[in-house]
Design goal:
Layout (H helix, E strand, L loop, with lengths): L8 E6 L3 H10 L9 E5 L9 H5 L6 E4 L10 E4 L5 E4 L5 E4 L11 H12 L3 E5 L8 H9 L3 E5 L8 H10 L3 E3 L1 H11 L2
Parallel strand pairs: 1-2, 1-7, 2-4, 3-4, 7-8, 8-9
Antiparallel strand pairs: 5-6
Helix pairs in contact: 1-6, 3-4, 4-5
Length: 191
């Protein structure tokens, strides 16, 4: 089944331990990636994020921080800025939101995953990585309910197992993978 699935968008969520996990996952994406990638990493609200700069050496794709109403761009990794939820507005653009924090986080993973599921339906690949909250569980449920796929980092391998374990218990998954195997699967998916 995985071989026939071709996503139109990849959405990734991570929290505690996420920078190291993102180095590995983003590093596996080919320079010719034909879809946009949107990332929420739980960030402190009160200071600027340098996550795109930090991860740039590991990734062949363009990395940028999201701006409101920015067009979705294939081959580009877009990060939620501090203190804003990152949303998929429609299949063409993203939006930033100052809505209430979700599970004490803004940006939060659930709004990204849920809005991607609403916009892209069966075309979403959601990847939930390490983290110490249950953010992402409702989003994974929404993606799977819309016919998209959700891949979770193997909780035993994650630096903080709670987030992938919570999503697995709450919503199930299309794959539960150690990062090395997840990277191999991503390369095959876009080969």
């Amino acid at each position: 089944m995985a071989a026939m699935f071709r996503p139109d968008v990849v959405v990734i969520g991570a929290s505690a331990g996420g920078v190291a996990a993102l180095q590995i996952v983003l590093g596996a994406l080919p320079a010719t990636l034909p879809v946009p990638v949107l990332v929420v990493l739980h960030l402190p609200r009160d200071r600027s994020s340098r996550i795109a700069e930090v991860l740039a050496p590991y990734c062949t794709l363009a990395l940028r921080e999201a701006e409101d109403k920015q067009p979705l761009q294939a081959g580009t990794v877009t990060f939620a800025p501090p203190d804003y939820h990152l949303l998929v507005e429609d299949t063409q653009a993203i939006a930033l939101s100052m809505d209430e924090p979700v599970l004490f986080s803004r940006p939060a993973i659930d709004p990204l995953f849920e809005s991607a599921a609403a916009a892209f339906g069966t075309g979403v690949l959601a990847i939930l990585l390490t983290g110490a909250s249950s953010d992402g569980s409702d989003g994974v449920a929404a993606v799977r309910a819309a016919g998209g796929q959700a891949w979770l980092q193997c909780p035993e391998e994650a630096e903080a197992s709670m987030m992938p374990a919570s999503a697995l218990q709450h919503a199930g998954a299309d794959a539960v993978l150690p990062l090395e195997l997840m990277c191999r699967r991503l390369k095959e998916l876009f080969a």
